[in-house]
């Protein structure tokens, strides 16, 4: 049995049910996503895209693999102070993220549910938005078939390694036409425990494979397990234009809690 996670941005049901997350390609020319001959297309991908063009799946993306455009953008953002000088965190035994003694408050969501000024943490008035995390997996076709039969749109925060591992399932989601794709990093590590360069790779390569297979550039991302601080937020926003989408409630798939402006986290299990 393979599991996915579902997140619902809840307000008043009956309005649009996706995040309008795809931005125009011109906004990322300097980030190196669209060099000449880059896009391979859905059908031709496995035949024309070299396997070693991407980092190893389920392994932290090495900084040496980062594109020069990403590295240059990071260097400029750090030099200008846009990316704050916040130490890399470490995972403690109690599940919290620890920073060196004397560090300023990094606005870490894991520790205090602190939100950045641009984080999305609740649905707009009158909106009901459904989100899915961690795909695509072997359970995804079952989910996509269900969504298709019910004409239900959704936003999918996908892991880059899973997209590379299941390109046919990614293709299915894209070809549905009303499913939107967001970033959930390349290897699903805790983001605040990654260096600046590692975080650039985690986001950049996930955006890269999404663009390669769909021609689309995501606007939103979700940090694995919600682990984010102001350093990571700044990297995502400044280098890639990505806005973090969080959640603020949790319940089981067997019931929906109709509350205003909630983002509800719900487990979903496929039968495959």
From TrEMBL:
Annotated GO MF terms: chitin deacetylase activity
Localization of this protein: Cell membrane
GO biological process: chitin catabolic process; fungal-type cell wall biogenesis; polysaccharide catabolic process
Name of the featured protein: chitin deacetylase
Record-listed E.C. numbers: 3.5.1.41
Keywords assigned: Carbohydrate metabolism, Chitin degradation, Cobalt, Glycoprotein, GPI-anchor, Lipoprotein, Membrane, Polysaccharide degradation
Cofactor: Co(2+)
Organism: Tilletia caries (wheat bunt fungus)
Superkingdom in the source lineage: Eukaryota
Organism placement in taxonomy: Eukaryota, Fungi, Dikarya, Basidiomycota, Ustilaginomycotina
Membrane is among the record's keywords: yes
Membrane topology type: Lipid-anchor; GPI-anchor
Main location: membrane
One Gene Ontology cellular component: plasma membrane
